[in-house]
Design brief:
globular, OB fold (Dihydrolipoamide Acetyltransferase, E2P), 9 strands, alpha+beta, 2 domains, two-stranded antiparallel ribbon
Length: about 230
């Protein structure tokens, strides 16, 4: 829009009576109209960019919600953020995905049994594993799950997943294996993409006789022998 200074120039030239002032007046009017047109176009483009950006942001949020709404839409080895609810034992916990709660069974590891409902005491290091898992999940700012290339759920309906906390690329499975609070177990193709990494983490703890590896004969043939 032409400024006040622009109109003052027009009034000044109207007060002069010669051909030069008339030409100047016409030139000023033309320049003013051009300036107004440019301002109008810039304003339109700016508003359109803001509108497009707003629509794009809404679409991205909608896609994210759609991804979370159903685990059926999850892609293999891609991370999806979830909400932690509670810990069950050393390798199982509950999360909220969209509006639904899921039990999560951590892929390829097995923590010592708590022996719920068996009228037995927890196996050695079972409580340690549960406490460690619970502490990591309750203090994490962000929790992500990642499914593998095979079935997303087991025959109990539990979600089979790798677990990642915050911005770490090391899975929670690897953390627990390195501390000797779990062993590599239940390796089933094609849900075995990270098995080599997990075996290296297990070997790290075994060589240092950490936790479950500190008791001779407790782990044998890839299972616990309490």
């Amino acid at each position: 829009m032409p400024s006040n200074k622009f109109y003052k120039k027009i009034l000044y030239h109207l007060g002069r009576d010669n051909k030069s002032s008339a030409k100047s007046l016409i030139l000023l009017l033309v320049l003013g109209l051009i300036g107004y047109g440019i301002d109008h176009v810039n304003s339109y483009n700016h508003n359109r960019i803001k509108s497009d950006s707003f629509i794009s942001t809404k679409e991205n949020k909608a896609e994210k919600v759609a991804d979370l709404a159903s685990i059926d839409s999850w892609h293999p080895l891609k991370k999806y953020q979830v909400t932690f609810k509670r810990t069950i034992d050393g390798d199982t916990f509950v999360v909220q995905v969209g509006k639904k709660d899921y039990k999560v069974r951590m892929l390829i590891i097995d923590a010592p049994e708590m022996n719920f409902g068996k009228d037995l005491a927890p196996n050695p290091f079972a409580e340690d594993a549960k406490e460690f898992l619970n502490a990591r999940l309750t203090t994490a700012q962000n929790i992500f799950l990642s499914v593998d290339k095979g079935p997303k759920q087991d025959h109990y309906g539990r979600l089979l997943a790798y677990v990642y906390l915050n911005d770490s690329n090391e899975s929670l499975q690897e953390e627990m294996l390195k501390k000797g609070l779990a062993i590599v177990r239940y390796v089933k193709r094609p849900n075995d993409s990270l098995v080599d990494r997990l075996r290296r983490s297990e070997e790290f703890a075994r060589e240092r006789k950490k936790a479950v590896w500190s008791v001779a004969g407790y782990v044998k043939d890839h299972r616990y022998k309490p």
